[in-house]
Structure formats: C-alpha cells, structure tokens
Design brief:
By secondary structure, the chain is mainly alpha-helical. The protein contains 17 helices and no strands.
Length: 450
C-alpha cells in the first residue's frame, strides 16, 4: 500500500449547485419513506408519530450544519475520511479515525446502496406479484450492477442525468401529495388523531424508533460532501446544497404522511407492503397505483445511482492518500473517474441485496453514528480553533447545533435495541484491532518504531 505518485491526475470539478442539490435530493427521495411509513406507524401510532418525524428533521438540520462547515473547510472527495484525518492529526489519532471511517464504509456502503435496491425490488413486486424472495434479490442485485455500468463514465454526464431524474421525481412527489390533499377525508384523519396506540413500545422508545427511521429516510443530505473534490466553488456550493435539501425534503415527507393518513385508515397503512401504491389506488384506481409504483421505481433507481456515485469515491480517496490498496486510486485515463473503487462498491452492493431491508436500517444507522457522526461533531470544534479562513462557511448559533446533534445521536443509539448496539460496538472493536495489526506490520503510529 505505497503512496501514489504526486503527479497522479485528479477528477475535474464539474458539479455545480444544481448538480450538488440534485445529488442530495435524489439520494434523500429514494425508497425510504415508501417502505418505512408502515414501520413508523407500527412503532408509534397516533399523532405522536409526527413528533418522531419532526425530531428526525431537526437532528438532520443540526447535523447538516456540521457537514456544511466540514465540507466547506475541507472540500475533498471522500469527505469524512479527510475531515477526521485532518481534525485528529494525520499521523496520530487521525490515522485511526480515518481508518475506522473507511472500515465502516466498507460495511455500510453496500448496505446503504443495497437497501435502496431491495426497496426497488419490493415495489417491483406490486407489478409482478409472482416475484418471490430470491427473484427480488436477483432484481436488486441486477439494479446495482446496471448502475455500476451507468456510472462508468465522466461525472459531468451523470450530473445531467441525476438532475433530470430529480425534476421528474419532484413532480411525481408533488402529484402524490397533492392527490392526497385533494381527497383528504376529515373523518379518517380524526380517527388517526384520536389513536393512542403505541405499537407495543413505551413512548420514548417509540419516539426513538420513529426518529431513527426518519433520519434514515432523510439521509443523503451529505452526499455532495462525498464528491467535494468534484464540486465547483465548493465553499459556497456544498453548504447551500446541504442546507437547502433538508427542509425541502422534510416538508415533502411530512406532507406525504399527512396525505396518506387522510385517505387510508392508519391500520391499513401500518400493515401495507405498498402503502403509497395502495394510497394512490384508493384515489385514482388501478392505473393510479401502477403509475405511482413506476414513479417510485424511478426514484429508488435514482437514489441507488447517486449513493453508489458518492460512496465509490471513498476507497479512492483513501487509496489516493496511500491509506488503502493502491489499485483503488486508479482513475479512468480519459474521463478521470475512479474505476476500481466504483467496481468494488458496485459488486459488493449487489451481494448485499440478498439481505432483509427491515433488518438493515437500525444496524446501519447505529454503525454510522458510532463510527462517524459523533466524531465529526468534535472535529468541527477542533478545526474551528485551528483554521480561521473567512471564506469558509460557519454554522449559525455555534455550538448549539453540535450539542443538539450529539444528544440526538446518543439518544438514537440508546433506543435502537441491544442487538444493533452490540453489532455497532463490535464493528468498532474489530476495526480498531485491524488498524492496530496493520500499524504494527507497517511500523507506524502508535507503535514505538513509527
């Protein structure tokens, strides 16, 4: 794992504000809410469920300020890998944190991309009822491999494609929410508002479960940070793309919840496999349900596409710094995109598609919180003291957003269940041991012969 040559080419900065915003929004408006609304209603039914969605949005907005400041300060592809290395010392604890981020990415990237693809396959079952579990796995894996082929080109072409899909998806979401509002039934909504069923959870555990689902659904507002080295005018573009995408999508998701619960009885919504399709079928008949599914498939395909685009830059960024296997730093000789890194993430994502979607969400979020999100909150404080560049974005109300983020992340971990916590902690321990083994083999920090 030798460091690459200094003369190595770098990807061009070709992503503007609209491209960055579409990369975030398309990631956020993926399959998430279309499959997790029933899970949220099962965890905390009644009007309290909206508190979970709002709490998730507030947490994401505060965390988005953390990402915006870090992305503006260090606008490099592979974002968090550089943030943690720089904040905690490139030759000291930053080596450990950078490695742990890379370690968790090798675990979570396939799960994140695979979850979008599995959701795609689940809704495909509405159109092909005979599609069984194995068939859905094959469809999801095929989608990952297809997206890998689509992304095997220069990023400027992908920016145009993602922007076009984002426009179509936004129009579709407005149509779905608008249809619900136009056919809103007050009696159905009042039945939901008078419900006090907590889904078997205590209130605080249920609130944590819904907030965790909401954060998963809102996830993607940081996607532009993964592409920092390919963003034009990054110190302005990255913060704007992050902070505009969160309230935009949060408003859309809350509207989607209100619309569905004003048309479908909440008991039906809580047990539906295709809740949005059932909702649109109730309004527009069979053709409405089919059209809604086609639009959801487009959204989930686009989400899987841009998540793969963002995560494929992380192994490349580490290898380009000499911290990962050298072939991952290889760029396409003509178009300047990471080739080996893209192929690796795409293939491992296809392999992850044979896991259950529901079983991935809590573990995926806990691993990311323990490995990355908490460490990034402290990284902002460290870098603020060290860098005083006036052109860098500074979050308002500092340090309140950081405090809210820390409390929120710890609360979500505490209410996620012991199995998810055990997997997350175990992954941290194993990653640390692998780092120490590698450091001892290479005679680098923290061993005396460094």
């Amino acid at each position: 794992m030798r460091a690459p040559q200094d003369a190595r080419a770098t990807p061009p900065r070709a992503i503007g504000l609209w491209g960055g915003l579409s990369a975030n929004v398309l990631n956020m408006i993926g399959i998430g809410p279309f499959v997790t609304i029933p899970l949220a209603l099962s965890a905390l039914a009644g009007p309290s469920v909206f508190l979970g969605w709002i709490a998730g949005a507030v947490l994401c907005l505060c965390d988005g300020m953390v990402w915006a400041e870090l992305g503006s300060t260090i606008p490099e592809s592979g974002g968090p890998y550089h943030y943690l290395r720089e904040a905690y010392g490139r030759e000291r604890f930053g080596r450990l944190f950078g490695f742990l981020y890379l370690w968790q990415t090798l675990l979570t990237a396939p799960l994140s991309i695979g979850s979008a693809a599995v959701g795609f396959a689940q809704y495909a079952g509405y159109l092909v009822p005979s599609l069984d579990g194995t068939g859905r796995g094959l469809v999801a894996a095929g989608l990952c491999l297809f997206n890998t082929a689509v992304l095997y080109r220069k990023v400027g072409d992908i920016q145009k494609l993602s922007l076009a899909i984002s426009v179509v998806v936004a129009i579709a979401c407005v149509w779905i929410v608008g249809s619900g509002m136009a056919h809103f039934d007050r009696a159905t909504a009042m039945h939901f508002m008078q419900t006090r069923h907590d889904g078997g959870h205590g209130f605080w555990l249920g609130l944590g479960a819904v907030a965790l689902i909401a954060v998963y659904d809102y996830g993607g507002y940081n996607n532009v940070c993964m592409l920092g080295g390919e963003v034009k005018n990054p110190r302005r573009t990255i913060p704007m793309a992050v902070l505009l995408s969160i309230p935009l999508v949060a408003t859309l998701y809350l509207g989607l919840n209100v619309a569905i619960l004003g048309v479908l009885p909440w008991e039906q919504a809580a047990h539906s496999k295709f809740v949005v399709a059932d909702f649109m079928q109730a309004i527009h008949g069979g053709m409405g349900g089919t059209l809604a599914v086609l639009l959801i498939l487009l959204a989930s395909w686009g989400s899987a596409l841009v998540v793969l685009l963002g995560y494929s830059r992380v192994p490349y960024a580490a290898a380009e710094q000499g911290q990962f296997f050298r072939p991952f730093a290889r760029l396409h000789p003509r178009d300047g995109f990471p080739t080996v890194s893209l192929l690796f993430v795409g293939v491992t994502s296809a392999m992850a598609c044979f896991l259950s979607l529901e079983s991935l969400i809590a573990t995926l979020m806990v691993v990311q919180i323990l490995f990355q999100y908490i460490a990034q909150c402290f990284a902002v404080v460290i870098l603020r003291r060290r860098k005083a560049d006036a052109s860098v974005f500074r979050m308002p109300l500092y340090p309140l957003p950081i405090a809210v983020s820390l409390v929120g992340w710890l609360y979500l971990v505490a209410t996620s269940g012991w199995l998810s916590i055990a997997v997350g902690v175990g992954a941290v321990v194993v990653g640390t041991l692998v780092f120490l083994w590698q450091a001892r083999s290479t005679r680098s920090w923290p061993f005396p012969n460094a």
